[in-house]
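Hi, can you check this record?
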Amino acid sequence: MNRFFTRSLSVVMCATVALLVNSSPSHALGIFGPPVDTTCQAYNGTTPYADQSCALCHVNGVPPALNSTGTLFKNNGFTATTAMCPVKNTAPVANAGPNQTVTLGTTVTLNGTASSDIDGNLLTYHWTLLSEPTGSGATLTNPTTAKPTFLADKPGQYVAQLIVNDGIANSAPASVTIGTANTAPVANAGPNQTVAVGATVTLNGSGSTDADGNAFTYQWSFASVPTGSAATIALPTTMKPTFIVDKAGDYVVRLIVNDGTVNSTQATVTITTANTTPVANAGPDQTAAAGTTITLNGSGSTDVDGNKLTYDWSIVSVPTGSLATFSNPTAAKPTFVADKAGQYVAQLIVNDGTVNSAPDTVIIATTGANTAPVASAGPDQTVPADSTVQLDGSASKDADSNALRYQWALTVKPTVSKATLSNATTMMASFVADVAGQYVAQVTVNDGMVNGAPDTVTITTLGGNTPPVANAGPDQTVPLGTVVTLDGSASKDADGTSLTFQWTLTTKPLGSTAAISDPSAMRPIITADMNGEYIAQLIVNDGTDSSSPDTVIIRTTTPSPAPGVYVPRARWNGSTSKLTAAGRAPKNASVEIRDAESGTVLMTVPAGDTGRFRAYFTPLFVPCAIQAAASGMLSEKTPVTGAPANCGINGGTPVLQQNQEQEREDSTPQRRKGTSR
């Protein structure tokens, strides 16, 4: 009976279920019929698979209870077969999109929209960055969306992972790799620099960068340098190479860096030379006897820019009662007579055309009457080649019985000789006459206060021709306008051969027309037509060899009536029609600037408290030379630099007339324009 009851109950239950299911034709298995339970739909979703499951599992309108295996469970312990209540869900598939290559600094957009769910369930997204380059601070923005973003802030690879969920199950993870492309480095040649000529410049490429963090190499080169510069870059493949600024001007240097893959664009830096203040050098201090003519020497003054220097000497201190004045205070080597015993202080300022130097001073200490010593180099000698020559200065003497100091020098030796003096500061020096020819040794003696005039000795070695020795005669100081006789008669030839003469005037004052009357004569003449220095050079020839050149200096004295009034420079500027003249006169004097040819007064300027004056004006005409007159004194003639060929009072159209005519020409169009109105 029990078996019967159980079988009957099963039939009734199945029939009931069948009848209920069949009542709704809207589900996938419409023959079952009963309406779908909303609780079942909430559990399984509303996909066709879920609808079928809910329809099969609906029992008497009572919400089903599902166990963990998806089978129907009834409180009365009845368990339906799994075929009666299938719960069908397929896990979704994640798709993180294709791999990407981007430029460093790019915002990367990930794309998971290709992820899918075969059940048609709505997906949720969960992105993570599995790995990023060392030092990266990259983070995902909106990592639960289909298209999150992040910033590729470091070079290298980024790996992102995506997992999607369909509301029931997670997908297997999918990943995508984002790599950064190489970025060209950026060269930085450093800031522009301004330096002095002669300075060593250090270039600096340390500001160059590579966004990928790659090590890079350097290549420096000159884009341009000043004319005549021989500058080269030391270690041009280093970060901080150097070069020496050897000429004034602009140096443009370019830098290219390479990261191992690609060159940067070039960067440039400009190094400019500023004008450098010149340095005055008034020469060494001196000791001399009262009454001596002192020669100062400013030729050691320098300008690193290579600009031509002008000189301005002044005596800032003299012994009481001294009337010492300079022969020419604008010369490199002026002279004055130390007319009193005591101390003289001379000051030198040089100018490079732009700025004055700091002053430099030299002290000349004079004592009571002192007699200069007399040097004696001994008699001429004739020796065999390759012998040791003993020089003897023992015959030198000093009338004041002061101890003497000796200084020997070899002033002439054969061309290929390598002879050098031994014990050159002793009374008896020596040398080896290593080749045949003629040697000339000179000795100068000093008594502790002043040098004596040098004396020479000629040593002739036997064998071959001995080159002759030129002697252009002693230096001379003469009044302006003097006809000077040059004298080469002291030239000699050890072989006794007759000599021919060749004179050349190598230096003369600006504006001078002086010329040697007969350059091949033993005693030609020249006329000192302008104030300043004339240097004549003599070379003699014995028919076989020419001598080394010898020179003589002819200096003109400051003409009397011009003590205390000087015009060292005057310049004409044709583009501005202005004449500039500067000089020195007695303090607070009124200075007339005159045409040296006609005496016409062109301009009057004050000398001021310092005695210096400067005139800048448009003259009536362009003078060829000018003079300054003040306090009854007249300066020497100063040529006007830049004056045209038709300069002078009898030259071309006067300057003022030219200017007036130009002004009329310039104003004519304006008058015509006004008339037309």
